[in-house]
Design brief:
Number of helices: 8
Shape: globular
Helix content: 40-55%
Organism: Pedobacter frigoris
InterPro entries: NAD(P)-bd_dom_sf, Sc_DH/Rdtase_CS, SDR_fam
CATH superfamily: NAD(P)-binding Rossmann-like Domain
CATH class: Alpha Beta
GO molecular function: oxidoreductase activity, acting on the CH-OH group of donors, NAD or NADP as acceptor
Number of domains: 1
Largest sheet: 7 strands, parallel
Strand order of the largest sheet: 3-2-1-4-5-6-7
Radius of gyration: 18 Å
Family: Belongs to the short-chain dehydrogenases/reductases (SDR) family.
Strand content: 15-25%
Protein name: SDR family oxidoreductase
CATH topology: Rossmann fold
C-alpha cells in the first residue's frame, strides 16, 4: 500500500452526507486520501466507516472563520501537503424574499460564501508552496437562472461562480487550477423531501431537463474527480453544469 504522503490528499467540506459523501467516495475509489470536514461528528464517523482506510474526518464548523487558519495549518502539518480542496459545505433556507431577515441572509452568506473564501485562502497558501493544486467549488442551478424563495442561497452561489473565475486567473499561473461544478437536480434525501411532497415542482424540474431524469450523486463525484485529476490539467476557471441539460432546457 502507498504511504499517505505519496497519495494525493483531498479535503471535502460537508463530506459526511449527500454530494460531499459521493465526491469522497469517488476520490477514495481512485486512491485519494480524503479528509471530510463537517459539523456532525456522528455523520462523519459513519461516512468514514463506509469509506474505509483512505478517509478520515475533522469535526469543524466552517463558520468559525478565525479558527480556519489553525485547522488548515494542522492538516498540512499532519499530512505534508493538500492537493485538492472541494468547497461543498452549504445550507439553504426557503422563504419569500420579503420575509428573509438580515440575520437569515447573513447566515447563508457566511456559511456558503465567506467560509469558502477563508478556506480557499488558507489552502492556497499551502498549494502555492507546492506550485500545484486543484480547487473545486460547488455552485447550483440557483446561479444559472432565477429560482424563487432562495435569495440568499442564490446570492451566495452566484458569488461562488464569480470567485471561481477571479481565483483561476490569479492562481493558475502558479499551478493551481480553480473550477466549479453547478449540480442540477440530483437524487438525494434532501431533494426527495422537496420534490416528492410537491408533484408540480417535480414535474417542472423533469420537464425542463432534456435527459428527463434526476442525476445521481455519483455523477457529481465523477465530475469532481475529473476536475481534481490530471485529465483536466488544461482546464481552469470553468463552471461545469452537471444537470442533464436542465440549465439549457425549455
Amino acid at each position: 500500500m502507498k504511504a499517505v504522503k505519496e497519495r494525493k490528499i483531498a479535503i471535502v467540506t460537508g463530506g459526511g452526507s449527500g454530494l460531499g459523501f459521493a465526491i469522497a467516495q469517488c476520490f477514495v475509489k481512485n486512491d485519494i486520501f480524503t479528509i471530510l470536514i463537517g459539523r456532525n461528528e456522528q455523520k462523519l464517523k459513519t461516512a468514514c466507516e463506509q469509506l474505509g482506510e483512505l478517509a478520515t474526518y475533522v469535526a469543524f464548523d466552517v463558520r468559525l472563520l478565525d479558527k480556519i487558519p489553525e485547522l488548515i495549518h494542522d492538516i498540512s502539518a499532519r499530512y505534508g501537503k493538500i492537493d485538492i480542496l472541494v468547497n461543498n459545505a452549504g445550507i439553504n433556507s426557503k422563504k419569500p424574499f420579503i420575509e428573509v431577515t438580515d440575520e437569515d441572509f447573513n447566515e447563508i452568506i457566511l456559511t456558503n460564501l465567506v467560509s469558502v473564501f477563508s478556506l480557499t485562502r488558507e489552502v492556497s497558501k499551502i498549494m502555492l508552496a507546492e506550485k500545484s493544486g486543484s480547487i473545486i467549488n460547488i455552485s447550483s442551478m440557483a446561479s444559472q437562472y432565477g429560482i424563487p424563495k432562495v435569495i440568499a442561497y442564490t446570492a451566495a452561489k452566484s458569488g461562488i461562480e464569480g470567485m471561481t473565475r477571479a481565483l483561476a486567473v490569479e492562481l493558475s499561473p502558479s499551478g493551481i487550477r480553480v473550477n466549479c461544478i453547478a449540480p442540477g437536480f440530483i437524487a438525494t434525501d434532501m431533494s426527495a423531501k422537496a420534490l416528492d411532497n410537491d408533484p408540480e415542482r417535480k414535474n417542472k424540474v423533469l420537464s425542463r431537463t432534456p435527459m428527463g431524469a434526476l442525476g445521481m450523486p455519483s455523477d457529481i463525484g465523477a465530475a469532481a474527480y475529473f476536475l481534481a485529476s490530471d485529465q483536466s490539467k488544461y482546464i481552469t476557471g470553468i463552471v461545469m453544469p452537471v444537470d442533464g441539460g436542465n440549465s439549457i432546457g425549455f
